[in-house]
Amino acid sequence: MSSNLRKKSDNDEKEDVPIKSSEEFNKINDINKPPKILLSKKKIWILMILISLNHAFLYISPGILSSCITQIKFELNLSDEAYGMFGTINGFGALIGSIIFTLVIERANHKKLIISVLLLNCFCHFAFYFKLSYTALIYSRFISGFATIFCFTYFPQWVDKFGILHWVNFMQTFVQISKTIGNVLGYFIYFILGSKKWNYGFLIESILVAIVVFFMKMIPKDYYDKNYIDPERERVNKLNYNSNNGIITEERETVMKDILCNLPYILLCLYKSNRFFIYVAIQFWFSNYLQTTLLVQERHVIFFSYSITMIFASFIGNIFGGIILNLIGGPNSKHSFIAMFILQLISVFFGIFSNKVNSVYYFNAMMSLYNFFNFASGMISISSSFAIMPKTIKGTANGIFSVVLNLTAFLPAPYAYASIKRIVGDGKYVINILMYYGCFGCVELFIADLYMRLKKVKLYKEEFRVATLKDEKI
């Protein structure tokens, strides 16, 4: 016909696509010919397990700091607010790390980057093992937050891109569960060694993470990269053509405009911020609440209270959320936001009534139900956030979200709990304030669901996958 038509090869379908310029011609060829490298399903599963182990081991130190509050405060002569700074400065380090992650993740070698920050986290914990000055410990928590946020931001994206078809939801659930398992490991170390040997928990974490890093280093860098495509998804979304004439559509003005104009994503981020603020505050001061408000001093009661509450909430709640997600049709379902709203509303109900009886067993039961429904809702939100954001800006959007999450949740929560307790004087009132604050999360989900239904917001059902997988049995 004319020179502005691109002829496909004999192996392709015999179809001509109009091209507007040579730049579009190059763009099409770049997209249609991605690098093909055969990746092993077995190695992807192995790396997924190593990632989950890292998630777990990186949460041992928060578990230690939460379980041994009384002893550490006594040895270092700290007030509640000074101790809360350990959590807040960790969040500030994560905030700075989130900003840098957004800037470097598109350019850096992913394997070297992740292994480097994991080793950095190992070394910074020696300040706690040797019980250095309070200033040194503050720097240590800052470095730890800075290093670990790279992993906590990158790993969910890795699962979304490398996750094996039909197993992505399971893999995402498994990775998220591992975080709470790490907290429980911290409490278990406290249960075994006692609070006077709390510093050994930091040494144990460093050794375990170093072992996992050793095995991660054996996995080729291709399994960390993002430029590979699953042939099962290769036929979908290769080009963003106009449905009428096959012409490539123009990109919108800026990535930031795309993100800020995506109201459901903004509301989902606000909900996650609300949810994590409450969870981080309770998780950080859990043992202190049992000891000072419910007057529980037995070490085994504190350990089993935390274990039952968090294991039940994380493991069963995440699995339940995954089941609900599959029943409603996956993250692309139009019912995902209303499902999150209902689950979050139920969780807030149990949370509000968790401190009405002065009994550790009643508190454990109600808080377990709160966390169960809270984590179920959170599991759906993780998958849904990938469905309401186009793939071209997803990485940047997640990086920006990590900054906002650290600024509004991880950073202020531990210190805010201590400050509120100093003002109101009773831990029960603090729990009440946190749970009523959780009602805002329900409102945000309800507005997001209503907006999506009224505006009929498009969900991104298909994405590029990252791996061309060998056809082999696991």
Main pleated sheet: 2 strands, antiparallel
Q: State the secondary-structure class.
A: mainly alpha
- Taking all Cα atoms into account, the compactness measure Rg is 24 Å
Strand tally is 4
Unreliable runs, pLDDT <50, ≥5 residues?
A: 1-36, 233-252, 462-474
SSE string, helix = H, strand = E? Answer: EEHEHHHHHHHHHHHHHHHHHHHE
Q: Which fold name fills CATH's third level, the topology? A: Growth Hormone, Chain: A
Number of helices: 20
Helix content range: 55-70%
Oligomer: single chain
Give the overall shape, derived from the CA principal axes.
globular
pLDDT averaged over residues? 80
CATH superfamily heading: MFS general substrate transporter like domains
Classify the beta-strand content into a percent band.
under 5%
State the distance separating the first and last CA atoms: 49 Å
The tally of domains stands at 1
Overview of the molecule:
The chain has a single domain (38-237, 253-469), classed as MFS general substrate transporter like domains (Growth Hormone, Chain: A, Up-down Bundle), CATH 1.20.1250.20. Helix content is 70%, strand content 2%. The protein is built from 20 helices and 4 strands. Strands 1-2 form a two-stranded antiparallel sheet. It has a two-stranded parallel sheet with strand order 3-4.
